[in-house]
Design goal:
With 305 residues, this protein is mainly alpha-helical. The protein has 4 domains: 34 residues, no CATH class; 83 residues, no CATH class; 93 residues, no CATH class; 55 residues. Helices cover 50% and strands 7% of the residues. The chain contains 14 helices and 6 strands. The protein has a two-stranded antiparallel ribbon. A two-stranded antiparallel sheet has the order 3-4. A hairpin with a 3-residue loop joins strand 5 and strand 6. The longest helix has 38 residues.
Length: 305
């Protein structure tokens, strides 16, 4: 009997050791997953030793490594190609500013900032009462000035919609002989995106002013104040009203949370991840910061499974 009791104790002890080893392995995997997903680096000793690695998510989301990584990710997501020079990538610099100060994510688009080169030829972010995120930065406006014959800022209109609510359109034709005039855009293959849809590019561009001239010497005339009805019923008069309407929409929060999944998982969300996605949207609505939105994703138990 004593031998049987002793054997039972050994079995219990071995099972406890196995369970303990399994738990340690789970914690280590979770620490590695969190650190690599958020900072792009291996976890430190403290994170590896943590009883609950996911409780350290907020600290990881305040690190310079995360801010740098997400600012670069943002810039890549918002532009077709890398800029030809540092000052072309204004989204990177302003994302750094917004993230480092834990400001609401919408400040990236509506914040009163200027992103320009200073006297030392360095790109800096400064306060500007006339700023509109990076959308009024001269380099950004020239980069997306487009080539519409009458100076209509179609490219800028599309890029504003793409950056804020994730709109993605594919040109109906890439022919160099395509008629890109207003009359040409009224054709059957083009007018859907340019005039008829809730994101009609010509309608959106009508409140952005116009390009005057081309290339590095191009200037931009301000909007003339004529109202335009966009996004299914919103009446706006200029770029500020347009962008403000966009960042207050559910589509804006959806776009930000989708970016969060793409950053952390390198893919879009799955249908089974709806509850996590909804919590991300809720955090953006109530807290506003991208860190809070990402924390809602990485703190969910499913992230470390």
């Amino acid at each position: 009997m004593r031998r049987l009791l002793g054997l039972g104790a050994v079995v219990v002890a071995l099972a406890a050791q196995a369970q303990s080893a399994e738990e340690l392995d789970r914690r280590e995997r979770c620490a590695v997953r969190l650190s690599v997903a958020i900072t792009g680096k291996a976890p430190g000793v403290d994170l590896l030793a943590s009883i609950d690695p996911q409780a350290q998510a907020d600290a990881l989301l305040d690190t310079v490594d995360f801010i740098e990584r997400f600012a670069r990710f943002t810039n890549a997501s918002f532009n077709r190609n890398p800029g030809m020079s540092a000052e072309d990538d204004v989204a990177y610099y302003l994302a750094w500013e917004v993230l480092s100060k834990r400001q609401p994510w919408k400040q990236l688009f509506v914040g009163q900032y200027k992103v320009e080169k200073n006297a030392s030829d360095a790109v800096v972010v400064t306060n500007d009462p006339q700023g509109l995120g990076y959308f009024r930065s001269s380099t950004w406006k020239r980069r997306y000035a487009g080539n519409e014959p009458n100076g209509v800022l179609l490219s800028a209109a599309y890029r504003i919609l793409q950056n804020t609510i994730g709109l993605k359109l594919v040109p109906s034709t890439n022919s160099p002989d395509a008629d890109i005039s207003a009359n040409g855009r009224q054709s059957v293959g083009c007018r859907g995106c340019h005039f008829d849809s809730i994101f009609a590019l010509d309608t959106v561009a009508s409140v952005l002013g116009k390009r005057v001239g081309t290339g590095a010497t191009a200037t931009f005339s301000p909007p003339d104040g004529t109202p335009a009805t966009v996004l299914g019923g919103a009446v706006v008069h200029d770029d500020k009203e347009l962008v403000t309407t966009l960042v207050e929409s559910e589509a804006f929060r959806f776009r930000a949370c989708r970016m969060g999944f793409e950053f952390l998982y390198n893919r879009r969300e799955n249908s089974c991840e709806g509850p996590v996605f909804d919590r991300c949207m809720k955090e953006l609505r109530n807290n506003g910061t991208m860190q809070a939105a990402l924390a809602a994703i990485v703190k969910d138990p499913s992230f470390c499974q």
